[in-house]
């Protein structure tokens, strides 16, 4: 039998221990370097995600401002259509049908721009949102929950846009038809007013997280003040003069 006690490395145990220490230290250094590289990469990706989210919030701000600008005009148009339905006789007095192209006709015009959220969704799926400061992460999570509500409202408004074109036709009127038209118009009016409230809250959210777009960008982006003024002229041209 081999006596293990007599086993001895050629250069002694001290050399073996030293070699093991060097290997262990090398592994630890490699792990630390890899961890540092991973953390640096995660920090870079988090900064990029936050920049994308900030761009999205700038778009949300402009769209919300635009909605608040034109909301009184939309309500005035709905009230005008409601009065037309109420005062029509046995046949609907057709509402004026506006058009911007051969395939784009409407009796009620509303903004329909969606609220982008791809940067937020990507950051969430990649686990980058969890790296944000809690004081920023919680308000942003609440904000994007509201964004989903606003996008759903936009989809409903698109459906309204298509359905209301029937008000431009001389539809035969009876009590049930008149009631159905008025009921639909009042539902739309309620959603328009609720969206106006949500738009105001969205602006407040962006202000609280200190991610307002720069003043120069507010003037020059498609949803900036100049564009909002154009939108108001376009949407309100057929409506009575609204008052806030």
Provide a descriptive summary of the structure in words.
- With 244 residues, this protein is an all-alpha fold.
- It has one domain.
- The protein has six helices and two strands; from the N terminus they run H-E-E-H-H-H-H-H.
- The protein has a two-stranded antiparallel ribbon.
- Helix 1 runs antiparallel to helix 4 (175-208), helix 1 (13-87) packs parallel to helix 6 (225-236) and helix 3 (134-163) packs antiparallel against helix 4 (175-208).
- The termini are far apart.
- The model is unreliable at 222-228 (pLDDT under 50).
Keywords summarizing the entry:
6 helices; mainly alpha; two-stranded antiparallel ribbon; 244 residues; 2 strands
Secondary structure layout plus pairing:
Layout: H1 13-87, E1 98-101, E2 104-106, H2 118-125, H3 134-163, H4 175-208, H5 215-220, H6 225-236
Antiparallel strand pairs: 1-2
């Amino acid at each position: 039998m081999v006596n293990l006690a007599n086993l001895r490395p050629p250069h002694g145990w001290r050399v073996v221990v030293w070699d093991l220490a060097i290997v262990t230290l090398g592994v630890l250094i490699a792990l630390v370097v890899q961890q540092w590289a991973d953390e640096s990469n995660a920090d870079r990706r988090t900064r990029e995600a936050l920049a994308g989210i900030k761009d999205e919030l700038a778009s949300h701000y402009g769209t919300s401002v635009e909605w608040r600008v034109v909301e009184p005009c939309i309500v005035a148009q709905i009230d005008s259509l409601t009065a037309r339905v109420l005062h029509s006789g046995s046949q609907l007095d057709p509402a004026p049908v506006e058009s911007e192209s051969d395939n784009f006709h409407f009796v009620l015009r509303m903004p329909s721009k969606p609220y982008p959220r791809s940067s937020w969704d990507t950051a969430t799926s990649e686990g980058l949102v969890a790296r944000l400061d809690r004081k920023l992460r919680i308000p942003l999570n609440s904000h994007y929950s509201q964004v989903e509500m606003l996008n759903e409202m936009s989809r409903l408004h698109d459906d309204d846009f298509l359905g209301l074109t029937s008000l431009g036709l001389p539809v035969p009127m009876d009590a049930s038809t008149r009631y159905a038209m008025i009921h639909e118009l009042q539902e739309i009016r309620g959603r328009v007013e609720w969206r106006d409230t949500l738009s105001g809250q969205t602006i407040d959210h962006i202000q609280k997280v200190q991610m307002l777009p720069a003043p120069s960008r507010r003037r020059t982006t498609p949803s900036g003040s100049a564009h909002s003024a154009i939108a108001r002229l376009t949407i309100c041209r057929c409506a009575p003069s609204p008052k806030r």
